[in-house]
Structure formats: structure tokens, C-alpha cells
Amino acid sequence: MAHTDTKKRILDAAEKLFAQQGFYATSLRMLTKEAGVNLAAVNYHFGSKEELIKAVFGRRMLPLNKMRLERLQNIKDSASAEGRPPDIKEILLAFIEPTFEFRKSGKGAQDFISMISRAFSDPRDTVRKLFLNMVEPVFQLLFELLCEALPSLPKNIVYWRLNFMIGAMAHAMSMSQMCQLIPDGLVLKVDSVSLAEQFVNFVANGLEAPL
Amino acid sequence: MAHTDTKKRILDAAEKLFAQQGFYATSLRMLTKEAGVNLAAVNYHFGSKEELIKAVFGRRMLPLNKMRLERLQNIKDSASAEGRPPDIKEILLAFIEPTFEFRKSGKGAQDFISMISRAFSDPRDTVRKLFLNMVEPVFQLLFELLCEALPSLPKNIVYWRLNFMIGAMAHAMSMSQMCQLIPDGLVLKVDSVSLAEQFVNFVANGLEAPL
DNA sequence: ACTAATTTAAAACAAACGTTTAAATCAAAC
DNA sequence: GTTTGATTTAAACGTTTGTTTTAAATTAGT
After folding, report:
1. Which bases of chain D are under 7 A from a protein CB atom?
2. What is the spatial distance between Cα B93 and Cα B108, in angstroms, rounded to a whole number?
3. Structure confidence at residue B125 (pLDDT)
């Protein structure tokens, strides 16, 4: 029964190759060879290469976003129930932990994360907008919560700082590939737990900076 | 005499299209049409598309890096002359201001900045390493200075925080293209001066965060 | 065992790519 | 004015791309 998991084999190979080489540089011929399926299988199952990209995105992003939304909504509910502003580090962890946890779950997940980190600034409208539309609800809620947590800051400043944070996160996530710039004699802990902690530490302080 | 500035016309068009559509998606046919030159002119003047990419990078990066290195070196010298650690905001401004200033200098410069922001995480080794090699000396000196400015922090933590900063900067620089995620009723000041200030404010606080 | 949905194989498709070639054109030196 | 060398031009090169098509082989479900 090599045929029921054909779609999954394609998605896995696409995730891997898209992450390693990008969408453009990955041809359907490499991809189907890596997946061990026929060249025509992609167009048969997904219709086109672009639809395959959408499917690769959606398979991971939908559950990941659902988790983030739930945690953010919980924070919002309990904060408004107790009549206090939400806590910043709590907000950040709700957004970040699912990503870091998922990233630790395997090589495929790691590939996926570096892929979406790049999709954020993809020059092609189709790819970037596809990704942005998926992230938008999370982004909106995150922005809303941060504004409540930082009531003394103008909203447009919160907005910029939120984007600084997103850039820092995207870069940290895709850094495994580009670690050429490591100064001599520097031992890097790649432990994801402490990386998440350090990240929250850094960003929380930045967000709370006085004007 | 439309032939003496052919190289410049190609570089300008390449800078614009590479920034807007990426290296892969920009064909030499679009590029030469945009530049108003013959298709073969690229291979005649630059040898190949990859050499053209190098030239586009180098034309702006070399003077930009030179400026950054000079300012950073000045900070290092005067700090060691006065026997005190360098100031963090001073360091950040030395690195950031040339970029923001250059970015304000025109549309071509703006295109270029979003281009190199993307080159940082380019999936193709050739493009990414080309860029990293150009940035490396600045990165090293920046890291060295930050370690001196933050003597209480372990070096690997300084390293991570430096990378958070770089990610935040790259994202902020390429954000002009992707501003789809703007919440309703939010007025964004795109004034580069205040953006640089806000950026330094954010990053300086993040860098100085307690463990 | 019949039907319908997959999978494979091999081939071909038009389109676009980077690159190369050879002739035409130009600027300047003699 | 002619020659020389650098530049521009138009056309073609060979490859690769995503996609489609053909047919045969395989599988799953009623």
C-alpha cells in the first residue's frame, strides 16, 4: 500500500527541500525523486506546484496557529475576568512556546520553521501573502494583548516593537542554516529551551523600554 | 553615448528588480529591458548573472561597511583610551545610523536595503555566503564591542542577543513591502529618524536585560 | 470479479531560462 | 580616412522548468 501515503510523502519531501533550497530552486523532478513517487503525482494530487506550497504551509500552520490562538485567548479572558492587564512574559510565551516546542519535535519541523521564517519576507506576492493571511489572526490578537499590557505606550510604538520581535524571532529560527558567523572559541548552546528563555528575556525588556 | 553608462544602468535595474522580486524571479530579459540595454550586455560586462549579483552587493555594501567600521573603531579607540567600557547606544547607533541614513537617500537605496535583508536568510549558499563574507568584519567588531560593553554577560548570550537584534533590524528594513498586517485605525510614522530611535531604544533595553 | 480511483511509466509540450555567437556599430588613434 | 578595439545588436543555442498526455499496471471497496 504505497499509494495511500503518496500525498504525505510528497508533503514531507516538499517541506524538506523547500526549507533547504527554497521554493524556486526546488524543481518537481528533484521533489518527486526525493519522495520516491512519480513526477506526475504532484499535479495529480495537488493540481500545481503553487497549490502544493499552500498545502505544505497549511498542514503545519493551522494546528500551530490554533494552539497559539487558544493560549492567547486564555490569557485575554483571565486578564479581563480579573480586571488586570495581561502579563507580558505570559503573552510572549503563549506565542513563542508552541513554535519552539514544535521545532524540537523533529527534523521536518525544524525545516518547516526555517521555511516560514523565510516566507515572511519572500519577494513573491503569492508566497508572502499566503503566509501573512495565515498568521494574521494571531498577529492581531497578539497586538491587541500587547497594547493592553503596555497601556502607557502609543499603539504605533507597540506595533513597531512587535515587528522588531517578529524579526528577531524569524532570524533566530532560521539561524541554524547560516551559522557561519560564529566567532572563534565561542561555544553555542543550541538548547531550544534556554534559547526560548533568552528570547523572551530579550524581547520583554525591549517591549517595556521607556520612551 | 548611451554606452558609457551601460554598466550603471544594469546595476540600477538589477538593484531594483532583485529587491522587488528576488534574484531567482528576476530574469536577465526583464532586467535588461528595465535597464534599456541589450540582453547580452550582462554577460558581456559582468560575465554571468551571479557575478552581477556580486557587483550589485559590492557597490553599496563596501562603502556602507567602511563607514560602519570607522565609527565602530572610533568608539573602541576612545573607550580604551579613556579606560572605560564603550556605551551601548553609541555602539548601536554606529551600526544602525549609516544604514538608516543610506536608506533615506533614495528609492534605489531603499530597494537595496530590503534586498540585503533578504539575502541574510537566502536558501542558496552562493548568495548567502557572499553576503555573510561582506558583513563578517563588521559583525566581528560589533560582537567584540558589545562584549566589552556588557562584561557581566556570558559571551554566548551576547551572541544570541546580537543575532536577535540583527533579525529585528532586517525585518524592520524589509517591512515596507509587506505592510499588509496593519491593524485598522493605526497611523504609522514611517519617518526613518524616529524609527531608528525606536529601534535603538528597543534593542538597547533587550541587550541590557538581566539574566 | 467488477468498478473506480491511484500509481507508474515514458514521452512530449510550450515556455522561459542563462549563455553564446557572429555580425553590425561606434569612438578614438594613427 | 582608415584601422583598431571595444561595445551593441539580433538571433540562436542547449537546458530546464511546470504541466499534460498517453497507456498500462496496481490497488481498494461494494
Report:
1. 7-12, 16-22, 27-28
2. 23
3. 82
Can you count the helices (H) and strands (E) in chain A?
9, 0
Condensed to tens digits (0 to 9), the pLDDT of residues B8-54 reads 999 999 999 998 888 989 999 999 999 999 999 999 999 999 999 99
Q: What nine digits make up the cell of B151?
A: 562584561
Interface size A-B, in CB pairs within 8 Å, comes to 171
Q: Tell me if B173 sits within 8 A of B113, measured CB to CB.
A: yes
Task: For residues B158 and B154, give the distance between their C-alpha atoms in angstroms, rounded to a whole number.
Answer: 7
CA B49 to C1' D14, in angstroms, rounded, equals 18
Alpha-carbon distance of A101 to A151, in angstroms, equals 30
Question: How long is the CA A15 to C1' C2 vector, in angstroms?
Answer: 39
Q: Which of A124, A132, A202 sits opposite B181 (nearest CB)?
A: A132
B27 touches strand D (CB under 7 A): no
Q: Mean pLDDT for each consecutive 10-residue tract of chain A (211 residues)?
A: 73 93 92 93 93 93 94 96 96 92 86 85 83 90 96 93 94 72 66 78 96 84
CB-based contact (8 Å) between B25 and chain A? yes
* DSSP string covering A51-118: HHHHHHHHHHHHHHHHHHHHHHHHHHHHHHHTTSPPPHHHHHHHHHHHHHHHHHT-HHHHHHHHHHHH
B118, B195, B205 member nearest A206 (Cβ): B205
